[in-house]
Amino acid sequence: MKFTCYLCVSLLVISAICGGVYAFSGFDVIKYLSFGSDSVYRSFLAVTAIAALFTIYSMIFFKPFKGLK
Predict the structure, then answer these.
(1) Torsion angle of C-alpha atoms 19, 22, 25, 31, degrees rounded to 10
(2) HSE of 60, CA atoms in CB hemisphere, 13 A
(3) Which of 5, 11, 13, 67 is spaced 20 to 30 Å from 48 by Cα?
(4) pLDDT tens for the 69 residues of the chain, in order
(5) Taking a C-beta distance cutoff of 8 angstroms, is the pair 48, 8 a contact?
(6) 15 closest CA partner among 36, 37, 41, 35
(7) What's the confidence (pLDDT) of residue 25?
(8) 26 CB neighbour count, 10 Å cutoff
(9) Which pLDDT score is estimated for 69?
(10) CB atoms inside a 10 Å sphere around CB 50
């Protein structure tokens, strides 16, 4: 479960970095890394969307910040 959380958060960070590069420069890093293939591009975005949902789920039900005050 811990590995899955790390994987999901790393996917979201990679997606955010690529989105920032696209927003500031107009260069689509994900499209470049997927060699222009629409199916690979959309698959990465779909996996990232599932990672975001799992991260929200784990934040709600596992309460990782419960002991922090």
Answers:
(1) 140
(2) 6
(3) 67
(4) 778 888 888 889 999 999 999 999 999 888 998 898 889 999 988 999 999 998 888 888 877 666 655
(5) no
(6) 41
(7) 94
(8) 7
(9) 59
(10) 12
Gyration radius (Cα) of the chain, Å: 15
Distances (CA, A) of 15 to 31, 55, 62: 12, 14, 24
Tokens representing 17?
Answer: 């970095």
Burial class of 30 by CB neighbour count within 10 A (0 to 12, 13 to 18, 19+): middle
Provide the whole-model pTM. 0.76
User: Can you give 26-64 as a three-state secondary structure string?
Assistant: CCCHHHHHCCCCHHHHHHHHHHHHHHHHHHHHHHHHCCC
DSSP character at residue 15: H
